[in-house]
Amino acid sequence: MPAFAESAAEPPLADSYHALLRRAGADGRNKDAHCTPTVHADHVLPAPDMAVSECELPMIDVGCLTTGGGSAEERAACAAAIAGAAEDWGFFQVVNHGVKQELLEAMRREQTRLFRLPFEAKATAGLLNHSYRWGTPTATSPAQLSWSEAFHVPLAAVSGDPPCNYGQLTTLRDVTQEVATAMSKLANTLARVLAERLGHAGERFPEGCDERTCFLRLNRYPPCPLSPDAFGLVPHTDSDFLTVLCQDQVGGLQLMKGSRWLAVKPIPNALIVNIGDLFQAWSNNRYRSVEHKVVTNATTERYSVAYFLCPSYDSPIGACEEPSPYRTFTFGEYRRRVQEDVKKTGKKVGLPGFLL
């Protein structure tokens, strides 16, 4: 790997923010000099919601599922709690999940080393198979900018096909593989439980998902002193079946419940699970893919690791029963449509674009 000793580690997020702010002001100026300049509402950051309250997501002990122990009654009660949370919240927390705490702590140490590399190394050296990203390349206003950086790694690369480039971070390889394996096992267990609650017991679910089709995302949210209203991650839903998230204790994750944003209280040793768009479609809207975001912190960086349970790009996303409100589509088609919508409008349309 080339030497980047003179380079700062931080991505140029401040430069992007100021450029977008200038652009929003320029776009809003009326050509008539006698008129007051205007800025479109979707070009500026929303006013801070002072009414945001902290919530504790439903907490579910899944030890009876991950260890194979427990009685039939305990497993049934656990499955009912998982399905209930998926229907009511779209989010829940799990403990006794089978992902060892020391493994997650090792992942955090490796993540910190990774993100402290010079920006040029992260952006140009091909680390983790060119999966580095920062900010929002398609943003046209500050309201569309995510103040964050990440490595969004296809698990086919983690498993070594083609071999993944870890640069000089040789210990990152084994930790990443272990985390992906452990989170994959948990995600598939929860997905099967949720499918069984809809009457699909004994089937392999999700169909088309394996260790090569999913993704692991290593996130870092740098401190943002410029605006208390900036997004670490803009409001969105996840374009997968299921997401498993390990966040640190800094906080910042918020989700939409009803018409209000709620801040998710970090709980030590708990993992967060949320339903993605594909599961909402497959379940005929029984399970909810809920909008969520990350808010920035002015002084403290935040780390998280997310596992995305995804099928192959050519896998059709059907429904658990007919009739379905959605037309059949493939995962690849869905991703392309999301990318096209974001590029054209700055916003993800998602499932409403696939309604019959």
From TrEMBL:
Gene: LOC100844598
Name this protein carries in UniProt: gibberellin 2beta-dioxygenase
Cofactor: L-ascorbate
Organism of this sequence: Brachypodium distachyon
E.C. designation(s): 1.14.11.13
Catalysed reactions listed for this entry: gibberellin A1 + 2-oxoglutarate + O2 = gibberellin A8 + succinate + CO2
Record key words, sorted: Dioxygenase, Iron, Metal-binding, Oxidoreductase
Record GO terms (molecular function): gibberellin 2-beta-dioxygenase activity; metal ion binding
Tagged with keyword Oxidoreductase: yes
SUPFAM superfamilies, per the entry: Clavaminate synthase-like (SSF51197)
Fe2OG dioxygenase domain segment(s): 212-311
Pfam families named in the record: 2OG-FeII_Oxy, DIOX_N
Biological processes annotated in GO: gibberellin catabolic process
